[in-house]
Write a structure and sequence with these properties.
Blueprint (H helix, E strand, L loop, with lengths): L14 H8 L2 H6 L4 E2 L2 H10 L2 E6 L13 H19 L3 E5 L2 H6 L7 E6 L2 E4 L7 H12 L7 H23 L5 H4 L7
Parallel strand pairs: 1-3, 2-3
Antiparallel strand pairs: 2-4, 4-5
Helix pairs in contact: 4-6
Length: 188
């Protein structure tokens, strides 16, 4: 693996500019691995990208940021294999070691994968050890068409019923036309 390093050449006292640089796609696409993010970086990614996938895991020591469980390490290795394929789907794939922040999105057990489509989370409930299943789930979520929910169907049904009822009332309660009121004289 080639390790390419980038150096930020701006003013380090400008926190917003540093954060913009850290979350820019140029920086993320250099490394061939799933990038570690913090809360601020993830929020920025969710604002700027339609499709983001986050692998949440736990660490032994927050200072070291090392994956503590063998299961998380094995899953991470498998997810690294599909990282480049998620790039082809225009999905930004990152990892985060923050159990409390994961709970904000509804994750109760770690490790877990959460897919965000326009900031709306969807938690992967399948086998994390099957990279093919994870990739297929991401592909289906990425290219899924917006679904009509029950409320939208109800509004549509009410609208159609209103149009039919209005047409019925207009037909039943027609006012007679002027020609029908004037009797025709037989000699006319």
């Amino acid at each position: 693996m080639i390790d390419v390093q980038q150096v930020y050449e701006g003013d380090l006292t400008q926190a917003d500019m540093v954060l913009d640089w850290l979350t820019s796609q140029d920086v993320f696409e250099i490394k061939n691995e799933i990038e570690e993010v913090n809360k601020k970086m993830l929020e920025k990614l969710l604002e700027e990208n339609e499709f983001v996938t986050v692998f949440f895991y736990t660490v032994c020591n927050n200072d070291l940021n090392e994956i503590n469980s063998e299961e998380s390490r094995v899953i991470m290795d498998k997810l690294e294999n599909i990282d480049s394929e998620t790039d082809n789907f225009d999905i930004t794939f990152v990892k985060m070691a923050d159990a409390r922040y994961a709970r904000k999105w509804g994750v109760t057990n770690l490790p877990a994968i959460v897919y965000f489509r326009r900031r709306f989370p969807s938690i992967y409930r399948g086998d994390l050890h099957s990279e093919k299943d994870v990739l297929e789930w991401l592909r289906k979520n990425r290219y899924r068409q917006p679904e009509l929910n029950i409320f939208m169907y109800a509004l549509l049904a009410i609208g159609v019923a209103f149009v039919i009822y209005t047409a019925f009332l207009l037909q039943c309660f027609k006012t007679p036309t002027a020609n029908a009121l004037v009797p025709h004289h037989p000699k006319q």
